[in-house]
């Protein structure tokens, strides 16, 4: 029986990996994405809109976010690596092409091509800066926390602090069918901090200048 299960398990792992890679390889069309974002605008198209699960917090700013990260996040919700009932339902309804199109739309949404290049985040002696250094956040999220070293990683500078706090806590959550994020690297980093420290860290990052914004939806379809 074990001899039969091992090849089957290897096939399943290979298939999931291939599906994830395929989702990233699909080329997105921003114009098509604008026609497919009906399920996004009700939350992400309202400035300051608050979600109520698993606690009250502002939904993340996604206009100006990297397309490959958006695809990666949606794929994780679809596969159950990120646990959130509403987002799982949205992601499950999207094909790889839909995800790529919506991601391409939000990557360019509200972006000012003439915007100045961000300067390096100023060093200071605040507790938040020390915590960011302890977590080595810049090693993945890049200079200014707006230039990730890998396009599947998110820009986080200027993101809502309460969202960042909830996201960090999700990486620490285990064995909960409704809440949690399965990422070994982020899980290891988040577990270094107390909730109080994570709130301080999130608040620091939220006050850094960044590309992210919530662009009010002109009209609801």
Strand order of the largest sheet: 1-2
Q: Any idea what the radius of gyration is? A: 18 Å
As for the number of domains, it is 2
Query: How many β-strand stretches?
Result: 4
- Number of helices, counting only DSSP H or I runs of 4 residues or more: 11
Helix content: 40-55%
At the third CATH level, what is the topology name of the largest domain?
A: Cytochrome Bc1 Complex, Chain D, domain 2
Low-pLDDT residue spans: 1-19, 115-122
Average residue pLDDT: 87
The first-level CATH class name of the largest domain: Mainly Alpha
**What pattern of helices and strands is seen along the backbone?**
HHHEEHEHHHHHEHH
The biggest sheet, with number of strands, parallel, antiparallel or mixed sense and barrel status, is: 2 strands, antiparallel
Q: What structural category arises from helix and sheet content?
A: mainly alpha
Which geometry do the CA atoms define?
A: globular
CATH architecture of the largest domain: Orthogonal Bundle
Instruction: Provide the β-strand percentage band.
Output: under 5%
């Amino acid at each position: 029986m074990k001899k039969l299960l091992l090849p089957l398990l290897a096939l399943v792992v290979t298939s999931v990996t291939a599906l994830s890679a395929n989702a990233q390889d699909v080329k997105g069309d921003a114009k098509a994405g604008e026609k497919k974002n009906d399920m996004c605008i009700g939350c992400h198209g309202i400035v300051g809109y608050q979600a109520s699960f698993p606690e009250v917090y502002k939904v993340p700013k996604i206009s100006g976010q990297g397309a490959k990260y958006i695809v990666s996040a949606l794929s994780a919700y679809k596969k159950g690596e990120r646990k959130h009932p509403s987002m799982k339902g949205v992601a499950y309804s999207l094909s790889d092409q839909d995800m790529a199109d919506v991601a391409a739309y939000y990557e360019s949404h509200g972006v000012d091509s003439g915007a100045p290049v961000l300067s390096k985040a100023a060093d200071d002696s605040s507790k938040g800066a020390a915590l960011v250094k302890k977590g080595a956040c810049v090693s993945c999220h890049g200079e200014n926390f707006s230039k990730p070293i890998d396009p599947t990683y998110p820009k986080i500078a200027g993101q809502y602090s309460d969202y960042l706090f909830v996201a960090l806590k999700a990486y620490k959550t285990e064995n909960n069918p409704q809440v949690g994020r399965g990422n070994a690297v982020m899980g290891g980093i988040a577990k270094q901090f107390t909730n109080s420290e994570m709130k301080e860290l999130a608040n620091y990052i939220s006050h850094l200048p960044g590309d992210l914004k919530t662009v009010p939806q002109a009209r609801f379809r």
